């Protein structure tokens, strides 16, 4: 739900031929102390709402400007009659006058540095929390932050009893899985940290708890900070627009249809999780350029098959495996019960964040290793072939024909109907293992095309899988 802009009227005298002066007078009604409460950042306008800075869509800003101009007079005392041209001129001047030169947010406004490193500050409904010290201070207009948690920080909230009981039902003997979920929820809901370059895949049967986890993550992060794309939309021309400014991207019941452009989807997921700068086309607006903050959490009944010979994409996913189904025994009041514990879940998440920052990395649970291997096999069969059938070493050397013949045998045994040509095989092999080189040594008086760094595994070779 969009927050209402506080209506403020400040009668002013305006020279219709001086749009910059008009823009500055318009801004005065949103001033907070010595800080301008209306700013333009990365091509969009933002307004201070008392706790955070909210994106102000251009139609809404135009409406506010029209209303304000209608209450103004010129210097001869005549009422201003706002025209499209006047409003456009004032908007152009406004964007220039309130332009904010920040590389990213959250960040302190230039010339208005406050207390605490921006990355350690969490905007809560009841103030600004320094997460390492758990010290709460007043909301601060000087911190340009566009997200706010819809939760009060309460250091005496206690343990989230119902939530912990729910997690124990999902993973009764797997504390590693619960720890990963705790750290992941903290990373996504409480920070803009994308440095881990990971996404989370939750795999399980229907009614296994996937949806409940996504709902709690959504409510803790704040619905305004969450988007819900689909795999298919990530391959569409304007499919990335919904990710702009969103900490969390939730894909529920994720499936890849046969018509989806898998190559484009995989490329976009790699670029976003890899913290690459992207240019995002937007309908009827100029392209947005920057690094998208979204961390992807994907819930699915089965592993997605996204071809990627290099296996780079599959390595970006952490996996949580759910095996129990509650179909027919659902607690339809569970989400409502858990939402009452959000302040306590916030404390639980902060504990997970502390642990993650001490360790410095996210840890894949051992219980999901089988799914990790399966996802890699789906994404990059060539990687699994090398793992199963080859020796990968600087001193290894094997003829291309022997490796390709072994690849054909492996594909037949694995039930793969389209092994491709020898050229396709070589292309995928080099994408997955760029250290491999093509050589042409002489064998028995003739040159043989070989791969240096790879050969077929023979009986007696150590199993390096």
From TrEMBL:
GO terms for molecular function: ATP binding; helicase activity; hydrolase activity. It holds the Pfam family D5_N. Residues 176-335 form the SF3 helicase domain. PROSITE patterns: SF3_HELICASE_1. The keyword Hydrolase applies. Keywords: ATP-binding, Helicase, Hydrolase, Nucleotide-binding. Gene3D superfamilies: P-loop containing nucleotide triphosphate hydrolases (3.40.50.300), Winged helix-like DNA-binding domain superfamily/Winged helix DNA-binding domain (1.10.10.10). It comes from the Bacteria. InterPro entries: DNA_primase/NTPase_C (IPR004968), Helicase_put_C_phage/plasmid (IPR006500), Helicase_SF3_DNA-vir (IPR014015), NrS-1_pol-like_helicase (IPR045455), ORF904-like_C (IPR051620), P-loop_NTPase (IPR027417), Phage/plasmid_primase_P4_C (IPR014818), WH-like_DNA-bd_sf (IPR036388). NCBIfam families: primase_Cterm. This is Putative DNA primase/helicase.
